[in-house]
Write a structure and sequence with these properties.
By secondary structure, this protein is of the alpha+beta class. Helix content is about 20%, strand content about 20%. The protein contains 3 helices and 6 strands; from the N terminus they run E-E-E-H-E-H-H-E-E.
Length: about 140
Amino acid sequence: MSRRGPLKSAVPSNIVSPVRRCSRTACGRPAVATLTYVYADSTAVLGPLATYAEPHCYDLCAEHSERLTAPRGWEVVRLADASAPSRPSGDDLVALANAVREAARPQQRAAQGGGNARGADPMEVARRGHLRVLRSPDS
């Protein structure tokens, strides 16, 4: 019996990058999305980068994920990345502008009706736009 030391790796560990790379041939860019095929539905699903690499999933860089096309008769489903900041829609911007205008207006309702003109909730103390200030249930 011969005693051998621990096996040494043929590749030094400091050369292997912990960053996952694009699965496309000759592309070394960092992966940002994961592609999975659902063969039963003829669908290619492109979503956020999976938490760990799986054998039948393909990691893609930003460029390849944007240019992704599916075979004829297949559908591509692009899932939104929840962690990425979403851009405000036109409705969001209009709602924000209306809220700012409402907040800048003088409080005419309180002067006209004594603060609770519409017979609203008796717990309501004040109102500014769609926001309400409520009394504490203890008081």
